[in-house]
Amino acid sequence: MPRNCRAVHLKDPFPVPEPEPVAGCDVCAALARQRAAAHALGDKATVIDSNIEMRSHSHPKREGQ
Fold first, then answer.
1. pTM of the model
2. C-beta separation of 48 from 11 below 8 A
């Protein structure tokens, strides 16, 4: 019996702007490179994971804060 299926295209569950890497942070820079590579490959799961990691990554408090 033939299947009558179509592909399902899901929307990004986080339709907010992508986070910007913090200047001078090696972790943020690595995540931004990983995200860019994932964008180029069309790997939305890795893009979303990179964004979540970048948003939740903590940075040491600067002097005077």
1. 0.68
2. no
Q: How many angstroms separate the CA atoms of 1 and 10, rounded?
A: 27
Backbone angles phi, psi at 17, to 5 degrees: -60, 150
Domain boundaries, the chain: 26-56
Cα dihedral: 58, 61, 62, 65 (round 10): 130
Tens digits of per-residue pLDDT, 14-57?
567 899 999 989 999 999 999 999 999 999 899 999 999 999 98
Q: Phi-psi region for residue 18, left (φ > 0), alpha (ψ -120 to 50) or beta? A: beta
Whose tokens are 């002097």? That residue is: 63
Residue bearing tokens 């569950």? 13
Cα–Cα distance, 65 to 62 (Å, whole number): 6
